[in-house]
Automatic annotation (TrEMBL):
Binds 1 hybrid [4Fe-2O-2S] cluster. GO terms for molecular function: hydroxylamine reductase activity. Belongs to the HCP family. Keywords: 4Fe-4S, Coiled coil, Cytoplasm, Iron, Iron-sulfur, Metal-binding, Oxidoreductase. The lineage of its organism: Bacteria, Bacillati, Bacillota, Clostridia, Lachnospirales. It catalyses: A + NH4(+) + H2O = hydroxylamine + AH2 + H(+). It is found in: Cytoplasm. Signal peptide: none annotated. It holds the Pfam family Prismane. It comes from the Bacteria. [4Fe-4S] cluster binds at residues 3, 6, 15, 22. This is Hydroxylamine reductase.
Amino acid sequence: MFCFQCQQTAHNTGCEGNAGVCGKKCGTANAQDALTNALIGLARAVNKKTPSEQSDRLVLKGLFTTITNVNFHEDNVRKLTQEIQAERNAIDASAEEYDIRNIWENHEDIRSLKSLILFGLRGMAAYAYHALALGYTDRDVLNYFYEALAVLGEPSDTSKENFERLLSYVLKTGEVNYRCMELLDKANTESYGTPVPTEVPLTIEKGPFIVVSGHDLHDLKLLLEQTNDTGINIYTHSEMLPAHGYPELKKYPHLKGNFGTAWQNQQFEFHNIPAPILFTTNCLMPVRQSYCDRVFTTSIVSYPELIHIGEEKDFTPVIEKALECGGYGKDHPMYGVNGGNTVMTGFAHGTVLKEAGRIINLVKNGKIRHFFLIGGCDGAAPGRNYYTEFAKKTPSDTLILTLACGKYRINDLHLGEIDGLPRIMDMGQCNDAYSAIQVALALADAFHCSVNELPLTLVLSWYEQKAVCILLTLLYLGIRNILLGPTLPAFVSPNVLEVLKETYQLTPISTPEADLKRILG
Ligand code: SF4
Ligand code: SF3
């Protein structure tokens, strides 16, 4: 096997041998490569024809399946590959597959640029899939998957023209992902309303409950409906936390609070948990003995021997397990990583921009000196303490916007308020980077300047491939001076890094003190 798509890749070079750091086994990794080969075959078959709904769905499922911590089930990956091959044969059996090893073994710059495109497509497919689950699609977004997959399968030499062409596809992936995040924002807010600021308890009330993890709001909504009046409470986990801000989800009184912190802590937070856990997307870790009989998967997530809830979304097995486990005998307080017992969410662009006038005045009269967007994925790397320390050291006249599961490093800190606005405002899941962009654009408009001239710094943490597509969107939008950590991607070659540094001043994090000093002058 060879895989180097995520931040925790072995030695920051690549996972090889019998299994990856994430627990993905060699057989599954090779099956995912074969799946990607088949997707390129399908893209070649479609080649400018109008694809069927079935092709679109298979492309999204296929790419989503290969995201880190989504699918550990070799047989299911192979079954999906066969479906993709059958679809290709039905369209154009002469279209050939591609061998992804041609990318892994290519010149490091070609490998780097094609990896940026491929991993960006994987992240974007997840967002397109969530939008599709709510009935929202965008033909241009869908078409781009075929176009870019076909580009991955083109022979590549190391000429300057080819470097430039692939680089243009890297940025185009960011451009299309912007549209895709916009689509998902529309799908989420039209389906569930504009998020409103909401305080979320971290205490688990006594009695039966279900923990829901991942990003899929549609799955959560269906589970809330099916558990109505059953006496079972529902708790979000990890990236599901922002669900509490949506009016159409928060109206369910049994959506009670949030369980635990970010994904990398699940193996000890789920130890002996008296309740089932439903994974709707990443990040699932290899399950431990003390709770493996309680983990359920749905949608694209899959793991050998766990019960999978199929497309009919009948959650009866999860509900029965919740009643069987019974929950805690009395209220069970839990705490964030800094010891807090509640967290806030719901500051999406619709809500923040309602306060735009007030925020602009606070900037003009010097009460807000700087904005930080501390966003991205959490993970196990020790260097990720940087983000907690950074937030703690920000001066009291600065505002922090958060996104994605990296927020768990800081979301239980109480850093006070500026004129009634909490200093930490959570904008939502990783895909809600769209919200942050809308706020930045509105501020730039109000101050008649570019986003790069705003008193705003993006301090990003990355782990999996959704973070890749978001980074590409920010680069496409021309946003400079982004701080990135905890390490730089193994798939960014020195030459490609040079371009990113030169053109966008993309900067690796150093220490919170040094970075803050430089930013705030
Ligand atoms: Fe390694 Fe990350 Fe790939 Fe898992 S997803 S095999 S940890 S690079
Ligand atoms: Fe987290 Fe896995 Fe990326 Fe959506 S849940 S941000 S890591």
